[in-house]
Amino acid sequence: MTSTPFAATVSRNPAAKTPEQRDAILADPGFGNHFTDHMFLAEWTPDTGWANGRVVPYGPLSIDPATAVLHYAQEIFEGLKAYVHADGSVWLFRPEANAARLQRSAHRLALPELPTDWFLGSVTALVDADRDWVPSGGEKSLYLRPFMFASEVFLGVRPSQHVTYSVIASPAGAYFKGGVKPVSIWLSSQYSRAGTGGTGAAKCGGNYAASLLPQQEGMEHGCEQVVFLDSTEHTWIEELGGMNLYFVHSDGSIVTPTLSGSILEGITRDSIIQVARDLGHEVVERRVSIQEWREGVADGSITEVFACGTAAVITPVGTLKWDGGEVTSGDGEAGKVTSDIRSALIDIQYGRAEDRHGWLTRVS
Ligand code: PLP
Ligand code: COI
């Protein structure tokens, strides 16, 4: 059954936070700690298609212990942000790209695709209900987390015939506690995040579960993030646990690992290709070996390294550590190219620069 066009009912939360409680949270939201007063829910079955769209008070979901997602991890998600502009209007950055990626992830995980009008309608309806939760000032935003999971109560291994889609929202400040300071990266030599033919290009919870042990190992070595190599040759740089990577060369060109099929197709990564070109940089997508990173930083041919993603925006990378050594790029501050690209991107997101590529959608 094909889904009907997007529609949603709205039930206001009678126990919504008071303006004082909300303001206290918005003053210093951190990342992923607080949630707004509402959430969006819808369900899919083969008979109904996507149906029952509703904005309801934020609260726990009741899950039967035999719900399929708890056993086989048939789950996908997205991440995008709503930004307040100087005139008080609220905008999303490239939401159609998130809608398309959720559809690709759904295909890989044998979940039903959510039509684009349902994706845009659901995030817009939630931002509308929780308009007062979109923080302004500094680099704050409202992080939106659409997600979809197998909600059939059944222990057989097959695609679920009952699927739940939800959107929750969380006011966000800096992803890393240190703000825009270089992070250090641990090279995982024992573990891979994804393999050929696997789910690396899908945004599914299982990929993140697989990254947690190496992430823990990285933290034990004093690093904030982990870099993963390809699973076949253990040579080619893929990405971090939750971000894509860029390398700035001494000739001004910038290089990012090519989409190998096992890397998440980051929307920030894609936007940076355009923004960096607009700033006059040559941008190259190609394979980058871990040896090139180590040697390039040591011999000065790589001058800056940065990571990018919706949550962390653009974050400079300082030290790369591995079992037996380390190299550090930069002097403990963000490099000039990194800072310039970062400013150009966030100026578009916050409406301070012209939206030349039509990336912004007004929602409120
Ligand atoms: N790579 C991984 C594994 C991620 O989780 C993310 C975050 O979403 C990214 C890359 C960056 O993607 P985007 O820029 O679309 O947020
Ligand atoms: C994002 O940047 O949106 C992510 O999903 C990264 C992380 C929070 C999982």
Could you explain the architecture of this structure?
The chain is an alpha+beta fold. The protein has two domains: 9-172, D-amino Acid Aminotransferase, Chain A, domain 1 (2-Layer Sandwich); 183-349, Alpha-Beta Barrel (D-amino Acid Aminotransferase, Chain A, domain 2), CATH 3.20.10. The protein contains eight helices and 18 strands. The protein has helices at 19-27, 68-72, 95-108, 116-129, 205-220, 267-278, 290-299, 336-349; strands spanning 9-10, 38-45, 49-57, 75-77, 80-84, 90-93, 141-150, 163-172, 183-187, 225-229, 237-240, 244-249, 254-257, 283-286, 302-309, 313-322, 325-328, 360-362. The strands form two sheets. Strands 1, 2, 3, 4, 5, 6, 7, 8 and 18 form a nine-stranded mixed β-sheet that branches. Strands 9, 10, 11, 12, 13, 14, 15, 16 and 17 form a nine-stranded mixed β-sheet that branches. The mean pLDDT is 96. It catalyses: L-valine + 2-oxoglutarate = 3-methyl-2-oxobutanoate + L-glutamate; L-leucine + 2-oxoglutarate = 4-methyl-2-oxopentanoate + L-glutamate; L-isoleucine + 2-oxoglutarate = (S)-3-methyl-2-oxopentanoate + L-glutamate. Keywords: Amino-acid biosynthesis, Aminotransferase, Branched-chain amino acid biosynthesis, Pyridoxal phosphate, Transferase.
Give me a quick take on this structure.
By secondary structure, the protein is an alpha+beta fold. It has 8 helices and 18 strands. Bound molecules: pyridoxal-5'-phosphate and 2-OXO-4-methylpentanoic acid.
Terminal CA distance reads 32 Å
Tell me the radius of gyration: 21 Å
Give the biggest sheet.
Answer: 9 strands, mixed
Bound molecules: pyridoxal-5'-phosphate, 2-OXO-4-methylpentanoic acid
> Per DSSP, what share of the residues sits in E-state strands of 2 or more residues?
25-35%
What is the architecture of the largest domain at the second tier of CATH?
Answer: Alpha-Beta Barrel
Specify the CATH homologous superfamily of the largest domain.
Answer: D-amino Acid Aminotransferase, subunit A, domain 2
**Helical residue percent?**
25-40%
And the CATH topology of the largest domain? D-amino Acid Aminotransferase, Chain A, domain 2
Low-confidence stretches: none
CATH class of the largest domain: Alpha Beta
Number of strands: 18
Based on Cα principal axes, name the global outline.
globular
Query: What structural category arises from helix and sheet content?
Result: alpha+beta
